[in-house]
Design a protein that fits this description.
33% of the residues lie in helices and 23% in strands. It is built from 9 helices and 13 strands. Helix 4 packs across helix 5 and helix 4 crosses helix 8. The structure holds 2'-monophosphoadenosine-5'-diphosphate (ATR).
């Protein structure tokens, strides 16, 4: 029996156990995935106790410990180093960490065929946004504007940029092909929402509720829901642990929808 878990501050709400245990069942893998809820004070001790256990084969790290995990890892891949966050660890003799959030986001927009010269607006620049923006630049998207309420530096390879202020967003909204909200709120006011074209794809990374305070404003636009990124980031994690890509079947979608529509 192999054991996996997700560690973070509100993991009792996490859908990762549901997703991975579903795949273990489908592929008849003798493994169990659970959650470990920690806070700043007990993170280190709990984690070390956990990984001492020889039966642990891997784990996920979530908010707010994706950075704190670095010092417990022997190897971290370059993408995770660049993003400065690890969300997936493989434990086999050594602890190896990767970041699959950026891959997850890129895969969640694949079906919308957004080409590299399209105008992309990212709202917010927190931890998850950092992975998304990195992914967009890495993939070669040229016109990406990131807005944040506080000015933050964005590093990509030798390029150094800064986030933009919301007060200059108006002139960019009407020409955006994709708007990605990475904040927990809706940062656009009614007037700004009105300037967004019906052809703009709107995306949010929050998955509960499905129709977030941001997405709700765009009745006629194509939408990318937060749940896509969650599922898509789990696929490369599973691949990292087991060496093959699991499929997202209808039963899994049904199980997830039941949870997020509650
Ligand atoms: P995560 O790591 O999950 O992305 P986070 O680091 O808390 O979460 O980031 C949340 C993002 O939402 C940040 O960009 C944050 O802006 P700041 O960097 O200025 O803190 C943004 N955010 C949160 N609450 C906001 C609000 N009320 N208005 C505008 N932006 C907000």
């Amino acid at each position: 029996m192999k054991y996996f878990f997700v560690i973070g501050d509100r993991t009792s709400q996490s859908l990762s156990p549901l997703i991975f245990n579903h795949w273990f069942k489908v592929y008849k893998i003798r493994a169990k995935y659970s959650y470990v809820e920690v806070n700043k004070n007990n993170f280190e001790k709990t984690l070390l106790d956990k990984i001492k256990n020889k039966k642990i084969s891997g784990f996920n790290i979530t908010i707010p410990f994706k950075k704190n995990i670095f010092k417990y890892l022997d190897v971290v891949n370059n993408h995770a180093k660049n993003i400065d966050a690890v969300n997936c660890v493989k434990v086999i003799k050594t602890n190896k960490g990767i970041n699959t959030d950026w891959i997850g986001y890129l895969n969640s927009i694949k079906e919308f065929k957004i080409n590299k010269s399209k105008n992309i607006i990212v709202l917010g620049y927190g931890g998850a946004s950092k992975a998304i923006v990195y992914g967009l630049f890495f993939k070669g998207y040229k016109n990406v504007l990131v807005f944040n309420r506080t000015k933050k530096q964005i590093n990509f390879k030798e390029k150094k940029m800064f986030t933009k202020q919301y007060r200059i967003i108006n002139k960019h909204l009407s020409t955006a092909d994709l708007i990605i909200n990475t904040t927990p709120i809706n940062p656009l006011d009614k007037k700004q929402i009105k300037t967004v074209s019906k052809n703009t794809v709107v995306s949010d990374i929050v998955y509960k509720p499905k129709n977030t305070a941001f997405l709700r404003n765009f009745k006629n636009n194509k939408k990318i829901y937060g749940i896509s990124m969650l599922i898509e980031q789990a696929i490369p994690c599973f691949y990292y642990w087991f060496g093959f890509k699991p499929s997202v079947d209808e039963i899994l979608i049904k199980k997830i929808n039941k949870k997020i529509n509650k």
